[in-house]
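Input record (one chain):
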Amino acid sequence: MGFYLFLVVLNFIGAGIVTLWLGYYLITNLQWYNYKIGRVLNNHHSPSSHLFYFLLPLTITLFSPIGGGLISIAVAFRFFKINRQGAKITKRVIRFFTLLHLCYILGIMAISLLGWYFLANHGIKLLYHQKVVITNPFLLSQIQQKGIEGIKPILNQSPLSFTPFKPMTFLPLISVGITLFLSNLLERLLFFRYYKTARKRLAKIDPIVIGITGSYGKTSIKHFLAQILENKKEKIYPTPRSVNTLKGIVKDINCDLPTDTKIYIVEMGARQPGDIWEIVKLVAPHYSILGKVGPQHLDYFKSLERIIFTKMEIFKSPRLKKGFTLQSLSNILNQITGSKDKSILKEEWNNWIISLEGKIEPISATLEGCRWRLKIGNNWEEFFTPILGKFQIYNISLAIYLALEFMDLSEIKQKVANLVPVSHRLQPIKSGDKFIIDDSFNGNLEGVLGSFQLVKGWSGKKVIVTPGLVEAPEEFNRQIAQKINRTFDLAIITGRLNRKIFQKELTIPTIIVENKKELEQVLAQNLPSGSLILFSNDFPEYL
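The corresponding structure, as predicted from the sequence alone:
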């Protein structure tokens, strides 16, 4: 009996290790992919990881919880060696592991109670492998008549065949599955409460709300508009950093939105149809901006049509006074091959949605800044900004048109001439005798190719540091590689996701780096005086 109990405890420990590891792997991936299980399963950067890190320990556990525990330790070591960024400890993660521990302990209790139930009611307790202790008089008499071989069918076909080792093999999977369900349910209930609080708080502050969306350029437009509207009389508050999801905006309203805010500028992002509409229902913008629309996040939307219809949800606000777009809504819809569905266009939109199509004329875009003409009313007005990148002309023009609802033109021109670049978006940095352009938050094809055009005329050595694009077709990264060949003298490739494409397509000297420490060493060794370094896009550490 002592050896039997030792094996039971050892198997429970093994199953516990498996449960902890599967839970950690699951919550880490959920955190990476915005707590969307669908994205973890369908849009993961390395789907084969699930086979190695999740299914392998789980499968071995079905045969041996002790073996599953040992394998879990081994794959965990490999995981942390490859992925330096695991789950960040947040309140949600703490709640998840609290539920996981509770489910596992309850599972142990259930197995133990079942074991004692069968022992008390049937007088039998199966030991490890074939060893049994039998006290039931009926079974003892059957053994005397038929022998031990004769009663095996009875043991195998009845509750008497119960052993803690059988349900124990399923305990990790059941514990993690129930925890995931309960965690999602709990988070939904908590979010519903936070959402109601956010609506009440926003109604109490009652600011003018400006909504901004688009496939790319949202964050830049938001920051440029906030700088132009900034004044000493009224509080202008944009959503921080790249916060653009419903949950992020709810948190921003509850925790950070100042009570004296007069204009609240809200960036709105989306991964599926309805995402923009959910934010619109919460904040109900008075003014809306639709930036450039294109095939960004195509892996999630599956079609350009779904992207366009989703972005247009920003104009459904019941309080909308005026909206602004780069293209007319009809021409945006014409991007959809073969689409004749114009039902989304409301007739009244023609009265208050202004298109800048045909009203922007770029003059120059250099490393000194951008100059262009913008048609306002019947006049063409000239603007200059120190912001880099020809594509930023269009983002700033949208901000100018909206700012005209609150300011006069001369003041706007002065603000535009003194705009400060958004961090990590074509941000120029002078470092000794080298010139750095930090464009690490630029994740769209048009912006990336535009930045290449900007640096093409640099007389010194040109170096690019990039992982390519994520959530984009392979063809986009091939285009980037071909453009790199014509523009740069050295390519430094970071990240694993697009490495094979670049290794195949690049013809200029190329260096592959595994981490940022290695990148620093490579840059120190390969940059002569007068070099230009472009940091183009950046991935999270786990990519």
